[in-house]
Amino acid sequence: MENRLSGASGWYPLRVSAGGMGRFRQALESSGIESYYRADAFCNICFARSTEHEIDAVISALGSGVTVHYLWDGVTFRPARIPARLMRDFMTVAESHDGSRVYLERVSTLLKDCQRVRVTSGEYSGIEGRLVRIRKTKRVMVALPGDIAVATGYIRPECMEEIL
Asked: Hey, CA dihedral for 6, 11, 15, 20, is it positive or negative?
């Protein structure tokens, strides 16, 4: 019996075997599935915007030459599904031309209690995340399921507001 969530469309993070990213992204594109990938950030993680069912069909069609696995949500024990707004914020920071952004593959559990903020002005206006200190500067970290995160460059305190 198919789970009711597998029909839900959203962004799904997927881990792709070494050397298989090109074939996998081409297969997604051929199926009309939007994807996002940053080789300079996470070399084996791709994000696909679709339903689990459609993504599973693409994975099956690839055959055994490319191994693709969902990143799992540790709470629901289902494939992690990223809300559109969170994914948009992540892509905005990842695509910024600010050379001081930082990609984090393992988000420390100590960062979980950091203050939630919204950037109110500047290049990152509208981004929501956690205020963190990296390399002695305050930044906003946008974290995704699977311990994937990107942090902005320095943001002045007057350009942020706390989210309660």
From this structure: positive
Cα distance between residue 65 and residue 71, in whole Å:
20
What does the pLDDT look like over 96-124, one tens digit per residue?
877 677 877 666 554 555 789 999 998 89
Of the options 1.10.10, 3.30.70, 1.10.3470, 3.30.450, the CATH number for the domain spanning 4-70? 3.30.70
Q: What is the pLDDT of residues 28-51, one digit of tens each?
A: 999 999 999 988 777 789 999 999
Map tokens 């990223």 to a residue. Answer: 82
Asked whether 135 and 150 are in contact (CB, 8 A), the reply is no
**CA distance between the termini of the chain:** 40
Query: Residue 52 carries which side chain, given as an amino acid letter?
Result: E
